[in-house]
Design brief:
This protein has one helix at residues 4-11; strands at 14-16, 22-24, 40-43, 50-53, 59-61, 74-80, 83-91, 97-107, 110-116. It is mainly β.
Length: 117
């Protein structure tokens, strides 16, 4: 059997604001940099191909073999403002033959799609 004082102590850990939202009472102070969000994962809905963008905005490709199955030795990147919008894969260096092109689309600078052209 739980005593009333123990139940009350547990109940007192929570509060409800004027809008009816429940929150945990705390004396902790959270400052900028205290909370980190891990890597964000993009996944092809039809396959298991994934791309990860880390918290610094770096793209880490895990398996895009179905998007770019050909061998390549050069990658040309095209930006629109700060957004990477086209990735062109070539053999034979910068003036070589294009083997694959990916188009990236954004909404308010948030990557939405990657499409093989």
């Amino acid at each position: 059997m739980v005593s009333d004082s123990r139940t009350q102590r547990e109940f007192d850990k929570f509060t409800v604001d004027g809008d009816g939202n429940t929150a945990v009472r705390t004396t902790a102070v959270i400052e900028t940099g205290d909370i980190e969000i891990g890597a964000v994962e993009l996944k092809n809905s039809d396959t298991d191909d994934r791309a990860s963008i880390d918290i610094n905005g770096n793209l880490a490709i895990r398996n895009f073999s179905t998007l770019v199955p050909e061998e390549y030795d050069y990658i040309d990147l095209t930006y629109t403002g700060d957004d990477l919008t086209t990735v062109t894969y070539k053999t034979g260096g910068s003036g070589g033959t294009t083997v694959a092109t990916l188009t990236l689309t954004y909404t308010a600078s948030v990557l939405q799609t990657v499409t093989k052209v």
